[in-house]
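Pasting as-is:
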Amino acid sequence: MVRRSATTMAAAALSAVAVVGSQAPASAAPNFQVPFTCGVEVTAATFSGHSPANSVDFQREGITGMAVLASAGGAVTRSENEGDTSYGRWIELDHGNGWRTRYAHLSSQAVSVGEKVSAGDKIGEAGATGGVTGPHLHFEQILDGADRKVVLNGKAVPYYGHTPFTSKNNC
C-alpha cells in the first residue's frame, strides 16, 4: 500500500511539473524599427529628466513634415490632439502581447483609432506640437503599461546621450 501511494504521488508530481513546464514562454518584443523611411539618418537623443524616463527624441535637420512610420505592425489605439500642451498630436499603436509604441509632437496624423497598420506604414508626420521647444519625434516603447528602454532593429539605444541611427524600416 505504501509503495502504491508513493508511486501515485510521484506520478501526480510529474504531471504537475509537466503542466507548469508546458506553459508558453513570455513573448519577445517585436523587431521594432526606426520610425522613418528606409535610409533616413536621425539622432536618437536620451537624457536624464525626460518624461517618461526611457523615451527617445528623434532629431534631425528638416525633420518637420517627414513621414513617421509604424516601427512594427499593430493596431491604432489612440490618435489624440492635445493642442499646445503635453504630447500635442500623438498616436499609440498596440503590437500585441502587452507591447505598445507612442509617437508624439506630430504635425499631422494619417491613421485613425481601430485601423490596422503594418511595419513601415505611414502613420503621421514629424513636427513640433504640444509642449516642445523645437521639432522632433518623441518615441516610446511600452510593455504592460511601463515604459522600457528603446531597442531598434535589435540594437539598444544608449542612455544618456545622442546616438545616430539609420532607418532600415521597410527597406
